[in-house]
Amino acid sequence: MKKWLLLTATALMLASCGNGTGTGNESGDAGEGKTDFPKKNIEIVAPASPGGGWDLTARTVQKVLKDNDLVDKNINVQNKPGGGGEVGWKYLQKKDSHTLAVNSGLLVTNKLLGTSQLTYEDFTPLAILATEWQSIAVAEDSPYETLEDLMKAIKEDPKGIKIGVGPALGNDDHLSLVQAADEYGINPSDLNFLVYEGGGDVVTALLGHHVDFVTTSMSEVKDQHLAGKVRILAISSDERLDELKDVPTYKEEGVDMVFPHWRGIMGPPGMSEDEIAYWDDKLGEMVQTDQWLDLLDNNDWDDYYMDSKETTKFLGEQTKLYEELVEDAGLGK
Amino acid sequence: MKKKRKKRVPIGVKILGLVISLIVIIVITITGVFIVMSFKKDQEKAGNIAHQTARSLSYMPIAQDAFYQNEKIEDLKNIVDNLLEDIEASAIVVTYHNRFFIVRGNPDTIIQLMDDPANEKALIFGSNYVKTIGDKKNKVLVGVSPIFVEHGEYKQLEGTIMVAYDQKQILKDVMSESITLLIVSSIVLLAGLFGSIMLAKDIKKDTLGLEPGEIADLYHERKAVFMSIKDGLIVVDQTGVINMINRSAKHLLNIKGDVKGLHLAQLFDGADTIWKLSNSDVSKEFEYCGKVMLISRQEVRRHNQVKGMIISLYDKTEIRKMARSLSEERHYIEDLRAQAHEFKNKMYVISGLIQLGKTREAVQFLMEETSSLEDQNKFISESIKDEKVQAIILGKKAKASEQHVTFNVHPESALGILPPHISLNALVTALGNLIDNAIEAVKGQDETNVSLFFTDVGNDIIFEVSDNGPGVREEEGSVFKKGFSTKGEGRGYGLWNVMMEVNRLSGEIEMQSNTKGTTFTIFIPKHP
């Protein structure tokens, strides 16, 4: 018995010696890395095909950082489409701190909807950059003058009112309406959604009276609203927007909800504090440049910048919010 | 608190126990790991298949058409049946919204799906996923996909497909796969059993059927016996390297410290004589450091090959000492008897004179005798302060008188008290032997004269014994050799003993001899 104990003790000692040297080397390497970040070219992953919102975000960040000489090294944009962001983000997980990826609410909802196991905690959140706002719009000749009119009608006959949405259920367009319906006491599974290929098709369907109303990004219907062809009944921002002074917020319409369709950027897991501080510094500078603000305006985005700490906190809150939303809906309340 | 002695486990049981427990642990671990890994892998595979099947089924136009065309329902049922068989799923369910539309497969699984529909999220959010339902004992993996019905421009979420795998079924399949592994392990276990029994047998053969514990006991016992033997024992291997040596041997050979691993030749001079002993039964006398010992050897043989040797040393010095002191005692008694005989003779003379009525002559004879005795004694007691020497000389005087040998102490002789390192025994041996030899040498001659001179003037104490015997013919050296004697067999230890004693006292001995007489002189330093 004593012999066994002795053997075990020896083995443990050997093992601990092995570990000791290992960690020593690793910390040494990390120490060198701190001082001269970035050491090589920066890569920004857009987890979607070129032309989409994520691609646009990635390329805008690339352009502004480069044009303003904020980063010495070259910056490349990589498109990794598939799985609602899953493919690109899994790619990021395996890279070092010179690779970043853009993200959005899908990072939170994918897990909740069962399509992915990834959460924001698997990465290093760096910043929330901008947001769009959700809107609910009807045709100009629609009988529904206010959000309240519309919700009452849905409550009376959920199947009778056709809702246009695109390109898929489970996105922010869909979720924002689910939340609003939930606030009105409507069972989300009773809603009659017609799923179109994209935002443009949704508006076309609305103009063609194929649907009774649509839930989509404000930017999709803004021009038609200004042209008087559609009517935006509510917007998900906390205050009325400058360019759409006549449109009330959800809050004004009695739905206690602010629903940003945000876009952010994150790095792979395990980034050092110095690396995080580097991006806080650079991205903080970037969002203050005139070029960035101009591009936001052009894309109908709002400045929604948060640094790494605020972003982490925000993502925690978002997770909780979506969780409640999805679980409540799942229970068929 | 006395502990009861632990019962020893036989070596065979020990080996068998170790091997069996090792093999069993390995088998259990490997089988367990195999089952867990396979189960995990199969589960993951089942999840993937469930997910993919649900998804691809949902894309099939027939799944959408069946909701609206009754004749397509049978076709969809057939497809689902085929799929169920192909992918070995437990159940496949198609729902129209939340109503179960087509159900195929294991009724238990279907009931579980009805109790806890896994498709809620798919029905609201249109997402694809794998969900686990049921309690711990009855887990079911469900792959869920929404069915969107295409309407040209747009599509609508109309139903879901659920493909379910019962975890119990997966586990059952894995278990049946692991049976092969268990059979192979059992064979290994049997081989291990056989091997360990053989090993135990082999070990016992090597140890003459003794258990290791018994061997250890034997070893300790034998070692104690070996160490406690009074005779010196040395065990060497076939090359002469020492394996064991006991206390007595060390004492006899004046060795201190550890000598294990040394060669015999490094141990003491003359060790090579041991090798010259041809017959192991014969012992030989051997002298070392003033000690006399009998040396003998016994070969250790195994399988008829000499594996080593046991050398035994038997100290004869002690016996010799005993024999000598016995003979000294005998001399004393002899001397006393001689003295008594002398007086008896004188008593006869006195008694004769008195019987003859010659009282005056008797008185005169008595007076003469006593005065000469007193003179002598007085001289001896005055010239010799040491009582030990006095006793020896008086004894020898009586012996000489009985043998009719004239024995004189030189009138110039004088001796103080002897230093304590000169023992009576040594003096008896040295002086007694020399005087006895001298008396013996002159006995039977017409004119006999033995004289003793001693003095302690200077650094040495000198004794000189002279006789007028026929002299010693031999070379001076050989007379001191052991066994030298002109007196016949079995004698000749006297002078050798004398020399040994003188040497021990760091003294010297000299002899001068011619046909007219012999003189022995002993020089003993006062300070050794």
Automatic annotation (TrEMBL), chain A:
<keyword id="KW-0675">Receptor</keyword>
<comment type="similarity">
    <text>Belongs to the UPF0065 (bug) family.</text>
</comment>
<protein>
    <submittedName>
        <fullName>Tripartite-type tricarboxylate transporter, receptor component TctC</fullName>
    </submittedName>
</protein>
<dbReference type="Pfam" id="PF03401">
    <property type="entry name" value="TctC"/>
</dbReference>
<keyword id="KW-0732">Signal</keyword>
<dbReference type="InterPro" id="IPR005064">
    <property type="entry name" value="BUG"/>
</dbReference>
<dbReference type="InterPro" id="IPR042100">
    <property type="entry name" value="Bug_dom1"/>
</dbReference>
<feature type="signal peptide">
    <location>
        <begin position="1"/>
        <end position="20"/>
    </location>
</feature>
TrEMBL record, chain B:
<keyword id="KW-0808">Transferase</keyword>
<keyword id="KW-1003">Cell membrane</keyword>
<feature type="transmembrane region" description="Helical">
    <location>
        <begin position="12"/>
        <end position="37"/>
    </location>
</feature>
<keyword id="KW-0597">Phosphoprotein</keyword>
<dbReference type="Pfam" id="PF14689">
    <property type="entry name" value="SPOB_a"/>
</dbReference>
<keyword id="KW-0902">Two-component regulatory system</keyword>
<dbReference type="Pfam" id="PF02518">
    <property type="entry name" value="HATPase_c"/>
</dbReference>
<keyword id="KW-1133">Transmembrane helix</keyword>
<dbReference type="InterPro" id="IPR029151">
    <property type="entry name" value="Sensor-like_sf"/>
</dbReference>
<dbReference type="GO" id="GO:0005524">
    <property type="term" value="F:ATP binding"/>
</dbReference>
<feature type="domain" description="Histidine kinase">
    <location>
        <begin position="338"/>
        <end position="528"/>
    </location>
</feature>
<dbReference type="GO" id="GO:0005886">
    <property type="term" value="C:plasma membrane"/>
</dbReference>
<keyword id="KW-0472">Membrane</keyword>
<feature type="transmembrane region" description="Helical">
    <location>
        <begin position="179"/>
        <end position="200"/>
    </location>
</feature>
<dbReference type="InterPro" id="IPR039506">
    <property type="entry name" value="SPOB_a"/>
</dbReference>
<keyword id="KW-0418">Kinase</keyword>
<dbReference type="InterPro" id="IPR016120">
    <property type="entry name" value="Sig_transdc_His_kin_SpoOB"/>
</dbReference>
<dbReference type="InterPro" id="IPR036890">
    <property type="entry name" value="HATPase_C_sf"/>
</dbReference>
<dbReference type="InterPro" id="IPR003594">
    <property type="entry name" value="HATPase_dom"/>
</dbReference>
<protein>
    <recommendedName>
        <fullName>histidine kinase</fullName>
        <ecNumber>2.7.13.3</ecNumber>
    </recommendedName>
</protein>
<keyword id="KW-0547">Nucleotide-binding</keyword>
<dbReference type="InterPro" id="IPR004358">
    <property type="entry name" value="Sig_transdc_His_kin-like_C"/>
</dbReference>
